[in-house]
Write a structure and sequence with these properties.
Blueprint (H helix, E strand, L loop, with lengths): L4 H36 L5 H5 L3 H25 L25 H9 L2 H14 L2
Helix pairs in contact: 1-4, 3-5
């Protein structure tokens, strides 16, 4: 069994480029969707939150987490539909790269950039830890 080192190096180089491509797609989508969500969902208002019972705040956080899960599902199924320009070069298969269906970069970016959701979580934490 002989190993074609040139082909291996090219395939691995394409894979590394593909991982960067996928990560960039997920981060860009995370930034865009986080900005949209922060813009269109209600702004965090500490004085309004203080009027709510703790169970309502927890329920709102759970419902928003549910929404986040649904958004992640759609994005994770959208990204594999975006063509990779080097698919087929030296037999490289874009859809076999595990990062294509791993939306962790998206999830981290999406949650981290939603200031209203973060503020609500911090507020709940401060109420529980008191």
């Amino acid at each position: 069994m002989t190993i074609n080192y040139k082909k291996e190096i090219i395939i691995r180089s394409i894979k590394i480029f593909d991982i960067g491509f996928i990560t960039t797609l997920y981060i860009v989508l995370g930034v865009i969707l986080a900005i949209i969500c922060d813009k269109y969902f209600s702004k965090f208002d500490k004085y309004e939150e203080e009027k709510k019972p703790i169970w309502q705040i927890i329920l709102e956080i759970i419902l928003y987490a549910w929404f986040i899960g649904i958004v992640v599902y759609f994005v994770r199924n959208l990204v594999p539909l975006i063509p990779f320009p080097l698919t087929g070069v030296y037999g490289f298969e874009h859809l076999k790269v595990k990062e294509v269906t791993s939306a962790s970069a998206f999830l981290i970016t999406f949650i981290y950039l939603q200031e209203n959701y973060q503020d609500k979580l911090k507020y709940l934490r401060s109420k529980i830890l008191v």
